[in-house]
Amino acid sequence: MDNQPLNPELPDGIDGDEYRRIRGLMRVSVLSVGRGRGIDPWDVVDEAWSSMAAKNFERQGPFRPFAIRVAKNKAIDALRRAEVKRIGPPLDAPLYREDGEEITRKDLLLGSEGADVDFFENHEEIERVELLALAEEALHQVLSETERKVFLEVQFNKKSRAAVGRELIPPVTGQRVGQIIAVALIKIRRHLKAHGRLADEASSAEPSEGGGADGRS
Protein backbone atom coordinates (compact mmCIF):
# COMPACT_ATOMS: atom_id res chain seq x y z
CA MET A 1 0.00 0.00 0.00
CA ASP A 2 2.94 2.41 0.45
CA ASN A 3 4.84 1.65 -2.76
CA GLN A 4 5.76 5.05 -4.15
CA PRO A 5 8.59 6.79 -6.01
CA LEU A 6 10.95 9.12 -4.18
CA ASN A 7 10.53 12.88 -4.57
CA PRO A 8 7.48 12.79 -6.87
CA GLU A 9 6.46 15.89 -8.77
CA LEU A 10 3.31 17.27 -7.12
CA PRO A 11 0.66 19.69 -8.38
CA ASP A 12 0.00 22.93 -6.54
CA GLY A 13 -1.99 22.45 -3.34
CA ILE A 14 -1.14 18.74 -2.95
CA ASP A 15 1.17 17.86 -0.05
CA GLY A 16 2.85 14.55 0.74
CA ASP A 17 -0.03 13.17 2.82
CA GLU A 18 -2.62 13.97 0.17
CA TYR A 19 -0.32 12.52 -2.49
CA ARG A 20 -0.17 9.20 -0.62
CA ARG A 21 -3.94 9.16 -0.21
CA ILE A 22 -4.58 9.95 -3.88
CA ARG A 23 -2.00 7.38 -4.95
CA GLY A 24 -3.76 4.73 -2.87
CA LEU A 25 -7.11 5.62 -4.44
CA MET A 26 -5.56 5.48 -7.90
CA ARG A 27 -4.31 1.97 -7.13
CA VAL A 28 -7.80 0.87 -6.10
CA SER A 29 -9.20 2.32 -9.31
CA VAL A 30 -6.66 0.30 -11.31
CA LEU A 31 -7.51 -2.87 -9.38
CA SER A 32 -11.22 -2.34 -10.06
CA VAL A 33 -10.36 -2.69 -13.76
CA GLY A 34 -7.48 -5.15 -13.86
CA ARG A 35 -7.32 -7.26 -10.69
CA GLY A 36 -5.68 -10.58 -11.50
CA ARG A 37 -5.36 -9.76 -15.21
CA GLY A 38 -1.60 -9.48 -15.51
CA ILE A 39 -0.95 -5.80 -14.87
CA ASP A 40 0.98 -4.31 -11.96
CA PRO A 41 -1.27 -1.67 -10.33
CA TRP A 42 1.65 0.40 -9.06
CA ASP A 43 3.23 0.49 -12.52
CA VAL A 44 -0.05 1.80 -13.93
CA VAL A 45 -0.32 4.40 -11.15
CA ASP A 46 3.23 5.56 -11.90
CA GLU A 47 2.39 5.80 -15.61
CA ALA A 48 -0.75 7.81 -14.85
CA TRP A 49 1.08 10.18 -12.52
CA SER A 50 3.90 10.70 -15.03
CA SER A 51 1.33 11.41 -17.73
CA MET A 52 -0.36 14.06 -15.59
CA ALA A 53 2.97 15.61 -14.59
CA ALA A 54 4.04 15.82 -18.26
CA LYS A 55 0.98 18.00 -18.86
CA ASN A 56 1.64 20.11 -15.75
CA PHE A 57 -1.34 18.48 -14.02
CA GLU A 58 -3.77 20.46 -16.18
CA ARG A 59 -7.39 19.41 -15.69
CA GLN A 60 -10.92 20.58 -15.16
CA GLY A 61 -12.34 20.42 -11.66
CA PRO A 62 -10.83 18.92 -8.47
CA PHE A 63 -7.56 17.04 -8.78
CA ARG A 64 -8.41 13.90 -6.77
CA PRO A 65 -11.28 12.59 -8.97
CA PHE A 66 -9.32 13.57 -12.06
CA ALA A 67 -6.29 11.53 -10.94
CA ILE A 68 -8.49 8.54 -10.12
CA ARG A 69 -10.01 8.60 -13.57
CA VAL A 70 -6.64 8.96 -15.30
CA ALA A 71 -5.46 5.85 -13.43
CA LYS A 72 -8.54 3.92 -14.53
CA ASN A 73 -8.03 4.97 -18.15
CA LYS A 74 -4.37 3.95 -18.00
CA ALA A 75 -5.42 0.56 -16.61
CA ILE A 76 -7.81 0.08 -19.53
CA ASP A 77 -5.01 0.97 -21.94
CA ALA A 78 -2.62 -1.44 -20.20
CA LEU A 79 -5.13 -4.28 -20.50
CA ARG A 80 -5.57 -3.55 -24.19
CA ARG A 81 -1.82 -3.66 -24.72
CA ALA A 82 -1.54 -6.90 -22.76
CA GLU A 83 -4.31 -8.53 -24.78
CA VAL A 84 -2.85 -7.47 -28.13
CA LYS A 85 0.58 -8.69 -27.05
CA ARG A 86 -0.89 -12.02 -25.97
CA ILE A 87 -2.59 -12.80 -29.27
CA GLY A 88 -0.06 -11.55 -31.77
CA PRO A 89 3.50 -10.48 -32.64
CA PRO A 90 5.38 -7.88 -30.55
CA LEU A 91 3.72 -4.49 -30.18
CA ASP A 92 6.70 -2.75 -31.76
CA ALA A 93 6.70 -5.03 -34.81
CA PRO A 94 6.35 -2.87 -37.95
CA LEU A 95 3.16 -3.41 -39.96
CA TYR A 96 3.63 -0.93 -42.82
CA ARG A 97 5.17 2.43 -43.65
CA GLU A 98 3.28 5.70 -43.85
CA ASP A 99 4.89 8.97 -44.91
CA GLY A 100 8.28 7.36 -44.51
CA GLU A 101 7.62 6.13 -40.95
CA GLU A 102 7.07 2.59 -39.74
CA ILE A 103 3.65 1.98 -38.21
CA THR A 104 3.56 -0.65 -35.44
CA ARG A 105 0.71 -2.45 -33.75
CA LYS A 106 1.22 -0.20 -30.72
CA ASP A 107 0.59 2.89 -32.89
CA LEU A 108 -2.84 1.50 -33.82
CA LEU A 109 -4.00 0.88 -30.26
CA LEU A 110 -6.71 3.34 -29.29
CA GLY A 111 -6.28 5.06 -25.95
CA SER A 112 -9.21 5.69 -23.63
CA GLU A 113 -11.00 9.03 -23.67
CA GLY A 114 -9.58 11.89 -21.67
CA ALA A 115 -10.13 11.88 -17.93
CA ASP A 116 -11.98 15.20 -18.11
CA VAL A 117 -14.55 13.74 -20.48
CA ASP A 118 -14.96 10.51 -18.54
CA PHE A 119 -15.11 12.05 -15.09
CA PHE A 120 -17.57 14.80 -15.81
CA GLU A 121 -19.93 12.26 -17.34
CA ASN A 122 -19.89 10.31 -14.04
CA HIS A 123 -19.61 12.38 -10.85
CA GLU A 124 -20.01 9.29 -8.66
CA GLU A 125 -16.68 7.77 -9.72
CA ILE A 126 -14.72 9.09 -6.75
CA GLU A 127 -17.38 7.88 -4.31
CA ARG A 128 -17.17 4.37 -5.74
CA VAL A 129 -13.38 4.29 -5.59
CA GLU A 130 -13.25 5.67 -2.05
CA LEU A 131 -15.73 2.98 -1.01
CA LEU A 132 -13.51 0.32 -2.57
CA ALA A 133 -10.51 1.81 -0.78
CA LEU A 134 -12.30 1.61 2.57
CA ALA A 135 -13.28 -1.99 1.88
CA GLU A 136 -9.66 -2.86 1.10
CA GLU A 137 -8.58 -1.06 4.26
CA ALA A 138 -11.02 -3.22 6.20
CA LEU A 139 -9.48 -6.39 4.74
CA HIS A 140 -6.15 -5.52 6.35
CA GLN A 141 -7.31 -3.81 9.54
CA VAL A 142 -10.35 -5.68 10.84
CA LEU A 143 -10.15 -9.20 9.43
CA SER A 144 -8.03 -12.00 10.81
CA GLU A 145 -5.48 -13.64 8.52
CA THR A 146 -7.79 -16.62 8.00
CA GLU A 147 -10.84 -14.45 7.31
CA ARG A 148 -8.88 -12.36 4.81
CA LYS A 149 -7.52 -15.43 2.97
CA VAL A 150 -10.95 -17.09 2.78
CA PHE A 151 -12.71 -13.89 1.71
CA LEU A 152 -10.24 -13.10 -1.07
CA GLU A 153 -10.03 -16.67 -2.39
CA VAL A 154 -13.82 -17.06 -2.63
CA GLN A 155 -14.95 -13.53 -3.48
CA PHE A 156 -12.13 -12.44 -5.80
CA ASN A 157 -10.37 -15.59 -7.02
CA LYS A 158 -13.71 -17.38 -7.42
CA LYS A 159 -12.58 -20.62 -5.78
CA SER A 160 -15.22 -22.95 -4.41
CA ARG A 161 -15.82 -22.90 -0.68
CA ALA A 162 -14.99 -26.60 -0.45
CA ALA A 163 -11.64 -26.09 -2.21
CA VAL A 164 -10.71 -23.17 0.04
CA GLY A 165 -11.70 -25.15 3.12
CA ARG A 166 -9.35 -27.97 2.13
CA GLU A 167 -6.45 -25.51 1.86
CA LEU A 168 -6.82 -24.23 5.43
CA ILE A 169 -4.83 -25.63 8.34
CA PRO A 170 -6.59 -27.46 9.82
CA PRO A 171 -9.00 -28.11 6.91
CA VAL A 172 -12.63 -27.08 7.37
CA THR A 173 -15.87 -27.79 5.54
CA GLY A 174 -17.35 -25.62 2.82
CA GLN A 175 -20.14 -24.77 5.24
CA ARG A 176 -17.61 -23.43 7.74
CA VAL A 177 -16.00 -21.37 4.97
CA GLY A 178 -19.41 -19.83 4.32
CA GLN A 179 -19.68 -18.90 8.00
CA ILE A 180 -16.22 -17.28 7.92
CA ILE A 181 -17.24 -15.21 4.88
CA ALA A 182 -20.43 -14.10 6.62
CA VAL A 183 -18.44 -12.88 9.63
CA ALA A 184 -15.92 -11.13 7.36
CA LEU A 185 -18.74 -9.31 5.57
CA ILE A 186 -20.17 -8.14 8.88
CA LYS A 187 -16.79 -6.74 9.92
CA ILE A 188 -16.31 -5.00 6.58
CA ARG A 189 -19.78 -3.46 6.72
CA ARG A 190 -19.16 -2.23 10.26
CA HIS A 191 -15.92 -0.63 9.11
CA LEU A 192 -17.72 1.12 6.25
CA LYS A 193 -20.54 2.23 8.53
CA ALA A 194 -18.04 3.63 11.04
CA HIS A 195 -16.73 5.84 8.22
CA GLY A 196 -20.21 7.00 7.26
CA ARG A 197 -20.52 4.84 4.15
CA LEU A 198 -23.46 2.67 5.20
CA ALA A 199 -26.77 3.46 6.87
CA ASP A 200 -27.39 2.09 10.34
CA GLU A 201 -28.74 -1.42 10.38
CA ALA A 202 -30.28 -3.48 13.16
CA SER A 203 -27.43 -5.28 14.87
CA SER A 204 -29.82 -7.99 15.93
CA ALA A 205 -29.90 -9.17 12.32
CA GLU A 206 -26.22 -9.97 12.40
CA PRO A 207 -25.11 -13.53 13.19
CA SER A 208 -22.79 -14.21 16.10
CA GLU A 209 -19.11 -13.67 15.45
CA GLY A 210 -17.31 -16.83 16.37
CA GLY A 211 -14.00 -15.85 14.83
CA GLY A 212 -12.12 -17.46 11.96
CA ALA A 213 -11.36 -21.11 11.38
CA ASP A 214 -8.52 -20.87 13.87
CA GLY A 215 -10.93 -19.59 16.58
CA ARG A 216 -9.46 -16.04 16.58
CA SER A 217 -11.26 -12.93 15.32
Blueprint (SSEs and pairs):
Blueprint lengths: L15 H19 L6 H14 L8 H25 L6 E5 L2 E4 L10 H6 L4 H17 L3 H11 L5 H7 L6 H21 L23
Antiparallel strand pairs: 1-2
Précis, in short:
The chain has 217 residues and is mostly helical. The chain contains 8 helices and 2 strands.
Which short descriptors sum up this protein?
single chain; 2 domains; two-stranded antiparallel sheet; disordered C terminus
Unreliable segments of 5+ consecutive residues: 115-121, 200-217
Gross geometry? globular
Overall pLDDT metric: 75
Q: Characterize the main sheet.
A: 2 strands, antiparallel
Structural class: mainly alpha
Q: From the alpha-carbon coordinates, what is the Rg to the nearest angstrom?
A: 21 Å
Proportion in helices: 55-70%
Oligomer: single chain
Give the strand content: under 5%
Overall number of domains: 2
Helices and strands, in order, run as HHHEEHHHHH
- The number of E-state strands comes to 2
Describe the protein:
With 217 residues, the protein is mostly helical. The protein has two domains: 16-120; 142-205. It has helices at 16-34, 41-54, 63-87, 115-120, 125-141, 145-155, 161-167, 174-194, and strands at 94-98, 101-104. A two-stranded antiparallel sheet has the order 1-2. α1 packs across α2, α1 crosses α5 and α5 packs across α8 (174-194).
